[in-house]
Amino acid sequence: MEAKEFKEFVKATVDKIVDYNESLRDRKVLPDVEPGYLSKLIPEEAPQKGESWQDVFSDIERVIMPGVTHWNSPHFHAYYPTANSYPAIVGELLSAGIGGVGFSWIASPACTELEVVTMNWLGKMLGLPKEFLNCSEGPGGGVIQGSASEATLVGLLAAKERMVRHIKKENPDMDEGIIKSKLVAYTSNQSNSSVEKSGLLGSMPMRLLPVDDKCSLRGATLLEMMKTDREAGLIPCYIVATLGTTGTCAFDNLEEIGPICKENNMWLHIDAAYAGAAFVCPEYRHLMSGIEYADSFNFNPHKWLLTNFDCSALWVKDSRSLIEAFNVERIYLTHDKEGLCPDYRHWQIPLGRRFRALKLWFVLRLYGIEGLQEHIRHSINLAKRFESRVQSDERFEIVTERSMGLICFRLKGENLLTRDLYDRILKRKRIYLTAATYQDRLIIRFVVCSRLCLEEDIDYAWNEITSQASEIINSQTHQTGIESAEKPVKKLEHSGKHLGAITARIEGLNINKAKVLQKIS
Ligand SMILES: *Cc1c(COP(=O)(O)O)cnc(C)c1O
Q: Where are the alpha helices (DSSP H) in 232-356?
């Protein structure tokens, strides 16, 4: 492809991106396709001769769009958000345009240095303790990882290395393999699946600890498990505390956990993948108190801070622990400016790395701190709007308190009802939500995700939810009515269990029980 054609192609694509974003509200948030749909639309072999860009371009609507889940639709309220903004998209384009790999300073000085600076900006915006920043005196610093999952694994591997060194210092004769086989890690049973996975990948048993009724991991629980492990000859090494769990956006108790880690020389990693973005607003910073105990802190600008995937921000207090864990020297990787700037290859799992700081830089400059604060506050205000809708309808209950942009709610009564509601909403595909459980109760998670989301979209979602809830409740009442007509009263009286089940369901729905019972008899 020549430059002239590239310009035409990219201009058409930019128009397409804008049209797509502007049409998001009108597209059904979930696609209608079945597995295997795509292979039916394109040939089984790659083309022998190159095609025209126009042919490829026209296949975007025909082949791709029918199978796209519109994550940035204002009707997408599932999981957590994935960020998207025009400045970030341009940053991605430019990164591809420059197209280097910045594994060391010399491999692309701008790539490394812009990352150092933007990570300092971002860390200051969040109010992180200065020990985490590259611009402070000590060995702290920030690095962009591909995902929170990678950050958790990086923390685990660094923790392992640090603990081995620590133990070897006191017991020089102890075998490294034996030490490693005794290390254990801890997290709550509410932490993201990627935390458990990091234990698998890093060969360290990851204990999933129970939480309190606010889904928060407490110090006493951790201490108790550590004691059991120590008694079994094991060595507590790594703990992942979550600020904003994936299920209910709960916050682990850092003020209790932190001192335990310090005393026991354990590495404390904080996973704030989603909620961390809120710390750009000073009013939410109290939620990270205790962060001063952490060895590493991570959040995803690619979730709630308008920077397209992938961009996961990791800070460590002592970058030497990463370098000691990951440094593998080769003559072709060394350069004469070593030590003056970070060589980020030592701070991550892969060697190669993209110029991701560009999109972060564009976002930070084009939105500014105030623009980003506004984005967070806007999302939370919309979540409050949804919360008050749920509160004002007595058929529903909020199960765990609203946290950030997440509301966990359900229909009062048996899980079956909420299950039915959830299935109906998913089948209609007008909005997208995810379900979860809380203490055996089925809940629906509603998250304000898209940057395009407005008050009217919250009301649209609430209308969709209540219209389906009403249908369920009407059909329930109706069914009960039919049963009463068909079955003699006596029979019902004898099957007390059955009647109990019905009344329980009805109570849960807040329908006047007396009235329905009257109908039955
Ligand atoms: C989303 C999420 C993750 C995973 O993030 P990736 O960047 O996709 O790895 C980890 N932890 C929490 C709490 C999350 O919400």
A: 254-264, 301-304, 319-326
Which atom of ligand 1 is the closest one to the Cα of 147? 7
**How many helices and strands in the chain, by DSSP H and E?**
17, 11
Q: Where are the alpha helices (DSSP H) in 212-318?
A: 219-231, 254-264, 301-304
d(CA 106, CA 109): 6
CB 431 within 8 A of CB 29: yes
Separation between Cα atoms, residue 184 and residue 406, nearest integer Å: 32
Place of tokens 């622990």: 321
Mean pLDDT by 10 residues, the chain (521 residues): 95 97 95 95 96 96 96 97 97 94 87 95 97 90 97 97 92 93 97 96 97 96 97 97 96 98 97 98 97 98 98 95 80 69 89 95 98 98 98 96 96 95 96 92 97 97 97 80 44 36 30 35 29
Is the CB of 300 inside a 6 Å radius of any atom of ligand 1? yes
Report angle CA 11, 93, 47 to the nearest 5 degrees: 70
Q: Return d(Cα 84, Cα 297) in angstroms, integer.
A: 23
Residue 274, ligand 1, Cβ within 6 A: yes
Q: CA–CA separation, 128 vs 123, rounded Å?
A: 5
The CA 149 to ligand 1 mean position distance, Å, reads: 6
Q: Ligand 1 within 6 A of 147 CB?
A: yes
Ligand 1 atom showing the smallest separation from residue 150 Cα: 9
Whether 80 is in the pocket of ligand 1, judged by its Cβ within 6 Å, is yes
Which residue's alpha carbon is at the smallest distance from atom 2 of ligand 1?
Answer: 273
The arrangement of strands across the sheet holding 206-209 comes to 141-145, 312-316, 296-299, 267-271, 235-242, 183-188, 206-209
211 CA distance to ligand 1 centroid (A)? Answer: 19
Helix-helix angle 513-520:455-486, to 10 degrees: 30
pLDDT value for 507: 29
C-alpha closest to that of 182 among 219, 215, 230: 230
| Distance in Å, CA 488 to ligand 1 centroid | 56
Give the DSSP H/E element, type plus range, for residue 299: strand 296-299
With a 6 Å cutoff on the Cβ, whether 190 touches ligand 1 is: no
- Measured from the CB, is residue 271 less than 6 Å from ligand 1? yes
**Euclidean distance between CA atoms 411 and 419, whole angstroms:** 9
Nearest atom of ligand 1 to the alpha carbon of 149: 9
